[in-house]
């Protein structure tokens, strides 16, 4: 049975913003939300039990406790939620997952910010381009923080695409930030760009990103195995793609 199992009744939220961090191109969403949760000391708020998610339990090094692979973390002082996932969501489960999470978000007055990478090679000194799209009046918010629209037509696929499709169908307010990311490897610099130029301005908070950029090599090595799994199962990967690929 699909449900969001809230663990912390002592955490009070008032129309929070949700940052989604499903694994995808460059692992940009996962890197960004993991960094956000750790930097702000966010509390493990809820477990996500949606139909179709892998029936597995995860554990952390140095800890005895098992947990759900998809979890919500909360920062009540900033009215903020972060969705952290240790597993990809399969294509056959994406729609059910989107319905489960999307309906909960709407019922809980949660405003989602979805994250996606678009595979692009770039020079080392070149900052990754950042774009924003959305529905339900998101354009005004993106314009206010000077996040530009994409320069070419495209689509967002994978579970993030399913979540955005749900928002379009239901007319719910949702934003998606799209950042250029190296498709072959975890891309901490692209994740830092999401936080520094997109999420931070939208939330009107300062997010330190030095840990991501200064330790990029170590982060790439630590996350290499998950990135390889995502490349081997491209359909499960949340990513933005130019529409020309399908014409």
UniProtKB/TrEMBL annotation:
Residues 228-247 are annotated as: Disordered. It comes from the Archaea. It holds the Pfam family PAC2. Coiled coil: none annotated. The keyword Plastid does not apply. Keywords: Proteasome. InterPro entries: Proteasome_assmbl_chaperone_2, PSMG2_sf. GO terms for cellular component: proteasome complex. PANTHER family: 3-ISOPROPYLMALATE DEHYDRATASE (PTHR35610:SF8), 3-ISOPROPYLMALATE DEHYDRATASE-RELATED (PTHR35610). This is Proteasome assembly chaperone family protein. The lineage of its organism: Archaea, Methanobacteriati, Methanobacteriota, Stenosarchaea group, Halobacteria.
């Amino acid at each position: 049975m699909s449900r969001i199992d809230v663990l912390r009744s002592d955490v009070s939220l008032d129309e929070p913003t949700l940052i989604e961090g499903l694994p995808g191109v460059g692992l940009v969403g996962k890197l960004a939300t993991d960094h956000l949760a750790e930097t702000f000391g966010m509390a493990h708020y809820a477990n996500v039990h949606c139909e179709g998610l892998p029936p597995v339990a995860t554990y952390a090094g140095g800890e005895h406790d098992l947990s759900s692979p998809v979890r919500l973390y909360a920062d009540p002082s900033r009215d903020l939620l972060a969705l952290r996932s240790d597993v990809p969501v399969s294509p056959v489960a994406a729609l059910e997952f989107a319905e489960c999470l999307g309906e909960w978000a709407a019922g809980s007055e949660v405003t989602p910010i979805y994250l996606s990478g678009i595979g692009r090679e770039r020079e080392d000194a070149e900052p990754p381009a950042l774009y924003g799209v959305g529905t339900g009046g998101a354009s005004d918010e993106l314009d206010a923080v000077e996040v530009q629209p994409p320069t070419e037509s495209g689509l967002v696929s994978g579970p993030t695409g399913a979540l955005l499709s749900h928002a379009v169908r239901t007319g719910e307010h949702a934003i998606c930030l799209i950042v250029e990311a190296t498709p072959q490897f975890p891309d901490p610099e692209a994740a830092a760009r999401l936080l520094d130029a997109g999420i931070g301005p939208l939330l009107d908070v300062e997010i330190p990103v030095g840990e991501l950029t200064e330790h990029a090599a170590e982060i790439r090595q630590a996350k290499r195995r998950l990135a390889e799994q995502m490349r081997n199962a491209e359909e499960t990967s949340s990513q933005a793609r130019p529409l020309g690929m399908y014409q």
